[in-house]
Fold:
Amino acid sequence: MAGTANGTAEEPERVAELVRGAQRGDALAMDELLTVLTPRVARVCGPIALEDGPDAAQEALIAIFRNIGQLKSPEALFGWARAIAAREALRYAKRRNRVVVAEIADRAAEGVDVELSADIEDVLGRLTPEHRLVLAMRHVEGLDEQEVSEALRIPVGTVRSRLFRAREAFRRAWA
Structure:
């Protein structure tokens, strides 16, 4: 059985087995599932909740494990977890009313144009959390509009509208 870089198997059958174990209260299954889900949840929460991303991710993981028994299809785990993470990150972003904070040192070390990066971060920080959310899910996570719709439990038309408005707001702020 192949595993990920951290040694945790992510084959669909194994993940489904872990979900069923976690639903039965198996602590080892829950621990392994946590190892599988943590980086995915963090990747969703970071661009939305910004500096509160780790806190949002932690809250999302708690919500996932509190409600794991409600997951009807173990195969739907990743989409279900992504939706919970996105909602939790959005809640943090709204509650804290945060603006985007650049990770300038990391980007400079990667050879990224720090001034341009800071300008982009500044413009993104002026967008509403909802607009940052759809932009992050579409352009960072690489989800298509239908997948964003399913993850956020909103109509595809709403996703398209938010993406259009987010892009327009970005263009206006950039100009």
About this structure: The chain is about 70% helix and 0% strand. Confidence is low (pLDDT under 50) at residues 1-9, 98-105. The first helix runs from residue 12 to 23. The two ends are 52 Å apart (CA to CA).
